[in-house]
Each structure stands twice: as C-alpha cells, then as structure tokens.
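Usage

Read records sequentially. Each one opens with the input sequence:
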Amino acid sequence: MENLFKWNNINSKLPDTRCVMLCSDPTDEVMKIKVGALITTEKGEKGWFIGNNALVVTLRSLSYWTYVLETDITVPQVQQDSQLKSIIPPFIQKLRKFEQKFQILGVQMMTPGSKTYPLDLYITGILSRASSLIYGFETLITSANYLAAAHLVRPHLDNYLRLLAGWLVENPHDFANRVWNGEPVRKMKDKNGKLMTDTYLKDRAVLEFPWMKDVYEETSGFIHFSNKHIMNATSVSSKKENTLNTCISKTDYNISNQSKLEAIICMIEISNCIAHRVSGWIETKRFD
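and closes with the structure output:
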C-alpha cells in the first residue's frame, strides 16, 4: 500500500520532541514505517528512539520523517462561503491519512518482541472502529450526504472518550478484560470511584481539550431528531419575502461549505487525540 504522507528529510530540518513517523525512503510501504521520537543520547548524539528496551538508531538509518499528528487545520477566513469549496479536498486528504496512521500505530504497538497486554487489544478495537467511521464519514461527505456524515462525528468522539477511560482506571488491563467480557464502560468506576458515564468522560476530556464540550453537545443534536434536521430541510427564501423553501432529498440541501469543513476538522482533531494517546502508550511499552 502506497503511503500518503509528505516527508521531511533530516538534511533539511529535524522535528521537535513530538512523536514522528520514520522511513528510509519516501516510497516505503506503510508497514515499513516506524514510529519514534528525536532524542539526544548521553554522548550528545541525536538519534531516533524507535524500539523496545529503549532502542535508539542513527538519524541516517531513517532519514525521512513526518509528524504523527496532523497540523495546519484551521479554516481560513474568507468573504464568501463558495471560496471554501476548493479547501475541502485537501482537508479530506488529511483525514484519509489516519487510516494508514492507525495501521502503523497498531503495528508498532504489537511489535514482535514486546509484551501484549489486554489494553493492546482494547486499543486495537478502538483503532479499527475509528478507521471504519473515518471511511464512512469520507464516503458520505464526498457523496453530498452531510447529514448522514455528521452523525458519525459523535461516535468518533466516543472512540476517544472510551480510550481515555483506560487511563482513568486503577488497572487498565483489568478494565480492558472487563470490556472484553461485555461489561459496559458506563457501569465501571474510575480510580476516584466515579462512574464513567458518557457525560463524566466528556467532562474529563474537556479538561485537556476544551473544544470537545461544544463538539459533544453539537453532534449529539444529530443523533436524535432535532432542529438541525428541520433547518437543513427548510430555509427562508432570499427572493420572496415571507416565503420558505423546503426540500426532501437524500443528498445535501442548504449545507454550507463552512459546515462541511467544520465537521471534517472535528474528525481530524479527534483522530489527532486518539493518535496522541496511542503514541504515548507505545512509548510507555518501550520502556517496559
């Protein structure tokens, strides 16, 4: 599978200490890509921290890098909504990259030679579900079906909230086993004795990512029938006073490019949060 990433060469610039993906050649297949971070050894030499037992390799052994997280995802200020139409495809491309990023993270997490924990299997399930939702979202949004696509933002946020739950409990591996055996997360308690309901997990996530509060509340309005569905089918006529236009359609009607971009960016930001937490778990395992 050809990778979708834009690579930086170590001779041009080096990353900061954030997690990066690494390869020896930009044409490398996805499964050959490593995940690591730039470090400075005790001897003062720079290298890539990429493996179990604190394995560090030289920069030149993997001379191309790109950040795991997507950046530059702010909607530009424009005067007319129509100007945003050309910006949508590049943002879709950013979102599409996470299919490969989640595969790479999963492979690195389950690298032969490292221990396999119940939490690994729990995370694998989240990455798989996230990939399916991203694919479904992309398929719908590019098929002029914003209303159906918007429904998927909320369950994608649920992916992150359920992932976060594994970090809130006293024993993550016991927690993962209980989920495996069918126990609902909402009926379990965190290390402080609090039931991990959707609302509680959202409140905990908001402490780190304040924007999740608005995303949670706004996208919940798409799950159940609400004014959002009425407003997307009916609008005030711009040509005749006191006139309403209504449309019953399986495809978009009266949907702005701004709304589409905001939904895409939400999916990207949530995917970033998932990738960031999984990257941290991979790094933790490498010191085990």
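Summary fields computed downstream for this record:
- Residues 257-286 form the longest helix (30 residues).
- The beta strands are 8-9, 20-23, 34-40, 46-51, 55-58, 64-67, 234-236, 244-246.
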